[in-house]
Every structure is written in C-alpha cells, then in structure tokens.
Amino acid sequence: MAERIMREKAHCLVLPLPLQGHINPMLQFSKRLQSKGAKVTLVTTRFIFNKTMNQAAAGRPFSSLAVDTISDGFDDGGLAQAGSPTEYFYRFQQVGSETLAELVEKCRSSGSPVDCIVYDPFLTWALEVAGNLGLVAGAFFTQSCAVDSVYFHVHNGKLKLPVPAGSEIFLPGLPALQVSDLPSFVADPESRPLALEVAVNQFSGLAGKPEWLLCNTFHKLEEEVVDSMSKMMPLRTIGPTVPSMYLDKQLQEDTDYGLSLFKPNTDACMKWLDERPNGSVVYASFGSMAVPGAEQMEEVALGLKASKSHFLWVVRATEQAKLPGKFVEETSEMGLVVSWCPQLEVLAHRAVGCFVTHCGWNSTLEALSLGVPMVAVPQWSDQPTNAKCVMDLWGVGLRAQPDENGVVRRGEIERCIREVMEGETGKEARRNAAKWRELAIEAVGEGGSSDRNIEEFVSSLVC
Ligand code: UDP
Q: Does the model's pTM come out above 0.90?
C-alpha cells in the first residue's frame, strides 16, 4: 500500500485470450486505461507477439502501449501447434500461470511493480495468479452482458442443461428466449463440451473476487440485464471498445485497433468502396473463427449474387476453396472478395449500406457504433444470442432464418438483404442504428457511463 501511495501511476497487466475477437476489445480497453493515467502492459503469448511483430516492422505497430509476453506452451505455433483445443487450454493454464507469475516478478525487479491484472475470464487461472501474488484482479468479459448472464445462470444451476427442445427460457433482465437464441454451446451442450466448460467457468472462483467485473457493453444498450447482473456481482460496463476516433474522439491517435492477426487488403477495399455510390454496398464477413460449411458458403455466395447489390465479402484464405467455382470471376462487376479487410474503416465508409454478419460481439458492437444495419447470419458460440438482440431488442436489422438442416438458403439471404437495403425494415433499422450510435458515443464520451466506470477503476488502483 505504502508503495502505491508513493507512485503516481498504477501498473496494470492486461491479458486477453490470444484470439482476434478477445485481443481487440482488451487492447482498446488498455488504451482507455492508459488515457486515464494508468500504466498498462498488454500481455500476449510469445507466438502472437512474434507473429505480429512482422506487422510492426511493416509499419503497423501495436499502438503506443507497452507489450510483454507469457507462454502458452506453444511458442512456435500457438493453438495450431497443439494437438487439440483441450491440450492447448490445459497446457496454457499450467505454463501461462508460471510465466505470468514470472512476468510480475520481472516488472517488480525492474522498478515497475504490478498493481493489478485485468484478465480474460476464459483464462480463469489468471485470477488465481493475481490472488497468490496479492494483486487486484479485474475480469474483462469480452461478450455481451446477455450472453454472460446465460453462462452465469448455467454456472449457478438456475439454467439446467440440456434445455428441453421447444422450451422458453426466462432469465432476469432478458426477453423470453427460444433454445435457438441461446449460445450454441448451451443450446447443444454436446457440440463443444470444452467451450461450454470454459465459458461457464468464467464465473468460477468469483465469490468476493475479483474486485472488478468489466463488461464490454454499454449501460443503455443492455440496461435491464446489466442492472440485474450488477445486483449479484460488481459488474461495470466499459464499452463499446471501438477505437476512439470512430466514437467520442477523446483519443486523437486512436484510429485503429493496432494488432491484426490477419493481413488486411486495405488499399484494394478502400479504392473499390470509393468508387461505389452512397449506401449501395453490402459488406459481408463471418469474422476470424467461424467455419461455415461448403453448402452454407455456396448459399451465401448465391444470395449475395441474387441480391443484385454491390458486395464486399471477406472470405478468409482457409475458406476460399468453399466458394462456388468461377464465383469470383462471374461476379467481378458487382463484388469484391478479399481475405481480410480493415473492418472499421469499411463499416464507416459512406458506400456501405448493410452488414451481413455472423454477429460476433465485436462486429455487432462495431456496426451499432457506426450506425450500420445488419443481416444476422449467426454460426455458433454467442452469435445466436447477439442476433436475437440485433433483431428483436435493438431493431437494427433482420436475422436470416435457417432451414430444417440449419442452412440459411440463398433466397432467405437475398430477402433479408433486399429488405434491409431497400425496404421499410431497413429504414427503421437505419434510424435505430443511428440512435444506438449516439448512445454509444455518449457512453464512452467524457462523463458517460462507461467513461466514468473506467475512471473509477483507475482511481481505485492508485488509492
Ligand atoms: N475484423 C477485421 N477484418 C475483417 C473481419 C473482422 O478487422 O475482415 C475484425 C472485426 O472488426 C472485429 C474482429 O475482427 O473486431 C472479429 O471479432 P468478432 O467478435 O466480431 O468475431 P470473431 O472473429 O471473434 O468470431
């Protein structure tokens, strides 16, 4: 304590799960913490650090944040080097705990002792490390509060699995949910037992600790469920974690996340968009992890083609073999397919009229923050719940309905795109999206709900 009073700045280590959808929000949060006077070190794995350092050399540095590393036990290949996700997670727990404690010691001996670890609760072991070392811990929930609430109620036994088919689920602060609205790991517990365990275990060992639960959402977006969760735990909203220059503009340098695990085709995308009329382009992407089947990819391809709109479609290199033969050539007049794009720049472009999205939480928040209406085509994980909110709670788009085999057909994709691009639904969705954008700006702007929560968090560390 005496040591803390002597020093001006609290030092926080911020540790995300090393996946794009977890790094982006925690990296952004780190920038906000730093802007409020904390010293922040973003902690990533040696593998991710080495991989992304090539980008820094190519002129795309992380950001002005300090970065340091721990080991996940797979320094040469990360998750891909492990025999299975299970092996990865268990080894990460063991080697990650040891190397995180070593990093804390290294900081101490170099005169920059650590006060706090903000950890991704997918890595619950970091809470134990913080506890053992007498450090403040903050859990950073990268998913929506609605999704956190579902996992929490599974954890405390109030939502029993398996949920019977056809039942309606009532949870505090949420509308009635169908099984198809639940996160896929909860709706079908057999589908990904490890992912379910990791998601539910986010709430393990939380009694009395950590002192802070930080959720990447904003109060007005999820008011009822946030209020309900806050009665049970010290949950604070700190989002949306979108680079400041797209929202409140408090951080002048903050125009980009700054750490991309994929190489974006920036010039090609922006030049192509510049040549299209306002609101005429459908932007489609399924994020960094979803692996739609070949049949689903074909239906999306043919749905985009049938919509007759211009489209910019991100198909990761590993997915491109699933495109129908000659699709790219046949649609080259109307569409551009790229392996990765600068998504924020794309969503903010005047030419984009709607976003066909898998509804990853970052993508959803980015679309809300930039006022872009959506066609939700959720694939797995938390995406069905986000899609439910997009359509039924926030009124910012349509959720495309799958057939009895779980495939969203081309006709349905075309119908949803046309309605959002040209129909009354689209006009209403655009009005609502503009409203959410204003509320997002208000939340992270000076004195807004998220801004105040971040400030209180930093103040609490300096004592
Ligand atoms: N993203 C990007 N370029 C792309 C596709 C995605 O920069 O071509 C970013 C997007 O802006 C978001 C993140 O990757 O911040 C994806 O996170 P999300 O939670 O939406 O989905 P996930 O990849 O975790 O499924």
A: yes
